[in-house]
Each structure stands twice: as structure tokens, then as C-alpha cells.
Specification:
The protein has 115 residues and is mainly β. It contains two helices and eight strands. Strand 2 (28-30) and strand 3 (38-43) form a beta hairpin. The longest helix is centred in the first third of the chain and has 9 residues, at 13-21. The radius of gyration is 14 Å and the shape is globular.
Length: 115
């Protein structure tokens, strides 16, 4: 099995897009059929999308945990330190390599691992 689609929803897609771009993600703005406009990033057979909340949603799901391999973890963490990302766990050596955990505006924890 291979994950090919991840969709997160937020109250403020533009702000969350800007936040994720600090990780090196380059989004495109588009829509499918009658659906809402949203941001999408495609790489290595996987699509990561940021959508607005649905009408029935009160707030974003902050319990989802994501993980990304990044090319230069130290550089990215240093860049995030003076932004609206919350650094939950600075860079550490783990059994999976160098990792850090950050938190986005909606409370999602994102595990960043050095490629």
C-alpha cells in the first residue's frame, strides 16, 4: 500500500498554505468540478491538499499527525524558529534518523525527517 492523497482542512487556507511553504512545499491553486478552490502539491505519486473547512465543520482537526522527509532539516528548523510554527521537539537523532516535530496553526503535529 502507498499513500497517494492527503487532504487537510482549515479555517484559513491562505495562511496555512504560507506556513507549509516554509517547509519547501510549492502549491498550485485550483478546483475540481463544483468543489471549492484549494491548494495542491504533487510529488512522487502523492498529492497533498489544503481545503477550506466544510460548512458542517466548526474547526480543523488538529489531531492528525503528518510526516515529511526534508532535504535540509537544520536549515528548515532554523527558518521556522521565527515564524508561527511551534517547535515541539528540536532536532534529535532517533532510530529513524535526524527528526524534529513542529506544530501548524491548526494544532497538527508534523514530523520532519532529514532525507
Amino acid at each position: 500500500m502507498k499513500v497517494n492523497l492527503i487532504v487537510i482542512r482549515t479555517e484559513n487556507p491562505d495562511l496555512l498554505k504560507s506556513q507549509y511553504e516554509l517547509l519547501g512545499i510549492k502549491f498550485e491553486y485550483h478546483k475540481h468540478g463544483n468543489g471549492p478552490y484549494h491548494f495542491a502539491y504533487e510529488a512522487n505519486g502523492m498529492t497533498f491538499e489544503i481545503y477550506p473547512l466544510t460548512k458542517s465543520m466548526i474547526r480543523a482537526d488538529g489531531n492528525l499527525r503528518l510526516g515529511f522527509d526534508v532535504p535540509n532539516l537544520t536549515e528548515i528548523i532554523n527558518k521556522l524558529k521565527n515564524t508561527d510554527w511551534i517547535i515541539k521537539s528540536d532536532i534529535q537523532q532517533t532510530e529513524w534518523g535526524l527528526t524534529a516535530i513542529v506544530q501548524d496553526l491548526d494544532g497538527r503535529k508534523i514530523e520532519l525527517k532529514n532525507e
